[in-house]
Write a sequence for this structure.
């Protein structure tokens, strides 16, 4: 048969069958890529959960795992993201931003000890007033300071509000240690967010 002749019926059936199978495979491939992309997006937006590690939000150690021993004793805090065991940084939802602070363990309130990894505490970094990140440290008061409107939180007593317009404390995230690495021990306790969300 030359290249221009119409193939016999059985040959045409074979070609149609191959085309249908090819299209079905292509549809499956696109669907599975979309599904895995959505799963990754979901994981990146999910709230911190048990088994998550922590990575730095910014600075020279950005995206590096947070180790207890490298945190400065007595503050300031560091802003961090939770990271799933498969390496997905949960940064798709900005309400997932956390802060960690290492304190003199004698200063940590009894009620907060179950949440601490030795002397390190972790809180939501989202100010409960209007959702700014609580990214400053007021050394003279030993408080977490939100520069947007001046709210101050005392980390040793569970990020209770000691100044400013914030209506409630920051949510606390339980921590544990895996060697020197800080690991989330459970979901946030308390409401994450502010008056707006
Ligand atoms: S947003 Fe933090 S004090 Fe207003």
């Amino acid at each position: 048969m030359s290249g221009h002749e119409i193939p016999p019926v059985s040959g045409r059936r074979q070609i149609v069958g191959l085309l249908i199978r090819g299209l079905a495979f292509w549809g499956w491939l696109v669907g599975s890529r979309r599904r895995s992309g959505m799963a990754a997006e979901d994981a990146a937006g999910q709230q911190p959960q048990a088994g998550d590690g922590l990575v730095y939000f910014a600075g020279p150690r950005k995206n590096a795992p947070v180790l207890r021993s490298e945190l400065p004793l007595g503050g300031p805090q560091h802003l961090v993201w939770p990271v799933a065991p498969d390496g997905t940084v949960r940064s798709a939802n900005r309400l997932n931003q956390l802060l960690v602070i290492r304190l003199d363990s004698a200063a940590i309130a009894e009620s907060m000890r179950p949440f601490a990894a030795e002397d390190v505490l972790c809180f939501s970094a989202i100010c409960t007033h209007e959702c700014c990140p609580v990214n400053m440290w007021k050394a003279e008061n030993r408080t977490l300071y939100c520069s947007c409107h001046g709210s101050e939180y005392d980390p040793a007593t569970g990020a209770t509000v000691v100044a400013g317009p914030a209506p409630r404390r920051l949510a606390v995230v339980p921590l544990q240690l895996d060697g020197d690495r800080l690991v989330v021990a459970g979901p946030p306790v308390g409401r994450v967010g502010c008056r707006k969300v």
Residues 127, 129-130, 132, 146, 148-151, 164-166 surround FE2/S2 (inorganic) cluster (CB under 6 Å). The beta strands are 53-56, 78-83, 98-102, 120-124, 136-138, 143-146, 151-154, 160-163, 175-178, 181-184.
